[in-house]
Automatic annotation (TrEMBL):
Hydrolyzes fatty acids from S-acylated cysteine residues in proteins with a strong preference for palmitoylated G-alpha proteins over other acyl substrates. Mediates the deacylation of G-alpha proteins such as GPA1 in vivo, but has weak or no activity toward palmitoylated Ras proteins. Has weak lysophospholipase activity in vitro; however such activity may not exist in vivo. It catalyses: S-hexadecanoyl-L-cysteinyl-[protein] + H2O = L-cysteinyl-[protein] + hexadecanoate + H(+). One of its GO terms (biological process) is fatty acid metabolic process. SUPFAM superfamilies: alpha/beta-Hydrolases. GO terms for cellular component: cytoplasm. This is Acyl-protein thioesterase 1. GO terms for molecular function: carboxylic ester hydrolase activity; palmitoyl-(protein) hydrolase activity. Residues 16-213 form the Phospholipase/carboxylesterase/thioesterase domain. It is an enzyme of class 3 (hydrolase). Belongs to the AB hydrolase superfamily. AB hydrolase 2 family. Its EC number is 3.1.2.22. Transmembrane segments: none annotated. Keywords: Fatty acid metabolism, Hydrolase, Lipid metabolism, Serine esterase. The lineage of its organism: Eukaryota, Fungi, Dikarya, Ascomycota, Pezizomycotina.
């Protein structure tokens, strides 16, 4: 049975226009909280007022056991291991019950937005590091078709068996997935992101991959513009 966790209510940044037409749920990474991404959201809003109708939900994860080594706290997974994680095959010992509990929580946030009248295809799920990993897993296993998935500096959770958790309808088979990885990421080796993107591509998912240097806001905004505003944007796919 999935592990029961006590959670803070997520940080909610309401639409500044007063009209709510879409929602972005963005999940933080190791050792962080939803508050750690509030300034990034405000930065995007200041520069791009076309997102004024979008609600941003930033969940807090006080202790999500998504460790890559059994029994270890998630914040210790990579920082206390020698060197960097160098390949997707090294991702072992993930806490399945913790993954499924977190998936259930994210799906409940999506359900709340649907009940508020937001179309599932106007909901974007995203995250960074640990949060990016859970956004891929929760997005692909969602019982509703989402507008898109943003996964930054992360990997595919339960990569050997994740397809066992995909609903038969596979509603998000064609959902746009933006994967980005920083070339100065010291926690996750770049190859882990490549392995993850290729795994999803081979499974038939709609992947766009971008390697970025320090700043990832422009390509992420471009993705949001494409999926929520119907605007054509430049989505980079370089892997060199």
């Amino acid at each position: 049975m999935p592990t029961a966790l006590v959670r803070e209510n997520p940080l909610v940044l309401s639409p500044t226009s007063g009209q709510h037409t879409a929602t972005v749920i963005f999940i933080h990474g190791f050792g962080d909280s939803g508050h750690g991404w509030a300034s990034a959201v405000e930065h995007i809003r200041r520069r791009h007022d076309r997102l004024d109708d979008v609600k941003f939900i930033l969940p807090h994860a006080p202790n999500i056991p998504l460790s890559m080594a059994s029994g270890r706290h998630p914040d210790e997974v990579l920082t206390s291991s020698p060197g960097r994680l160098s390949s997707l095959s090294a991702c072992q010992g993930e806490d399945i019950s913790g993954v499924l509990e977190t998936q259930s929580y994210i799906h409940s946030l999506i359900k709340t937005e649907l009940e508020a009248g937001i179309s599932s295809e106007r909901i974007i799920l995203g995250g960074f590091s640990q949060g990016g990993a859970i956004s891929i897993f929760s997005g692909l296993t969602a019982p509703n078709k989402l507008g898109g998935i943003v996964a930054l500096s992360c990997w595919v959770l339960l990569h050997k068996e994740f397809r066992d958790y995909i609903p038969d309808e596979d509603l998000n088979k064609d959902t746009p997935i933006f994967m980005g990885h920083g070339d100065q990421d010291w926690r996750l080796e770049y190859q882990v992101a490549i392995d993850s993107a290729e795994l999803l591509e081979k499974a038939g998912y709609n992947i766009t991959f971008h390697r970025y240097r320090r700043v990832v806001v422009p390509p992420v905004y471009s993705f949001l513009s494409n999926t929520l505003l119907g605007e054509s944007g430049i989505l980079f796919a370089g892997r060199s």
